[in-house]
Amino acid sequence: MPRARRLLLPLALALVVPPAAPAPARAGPHPNSISSSRVTVTGAAVHLELRCQAQSLLEVFGAEADRDGDGALDDAELEALHAPLEAYVNRNYVLRAGSGGDAARGTLLPGTLTGAHAAAPETDTAWPTQWVDLTFDHRAAEPLPDLLIDVTLFRETAPDHSDLCTLVWNGGEPVETQFWLGEFRRFHAPEAPPVTRPMTGWVRLGIGHILSGWDHIAFVLVLVLAAGSARELLGVVTAFTLAHSLTLALAALDVVHVSGRPVEVAIALSIAWVGAITLVAQAPRARWREAFVFGLVHGLGFAGFLGEALAGEPRPLRALVGFNLGVEAGQLVVVGAALALLALARRKGAAWLAPRFVRQPACAVIVLVALFWIVQRLRA
Question: Helix, strand, or coil here: 90?
Answer without folding.
Answer: helix
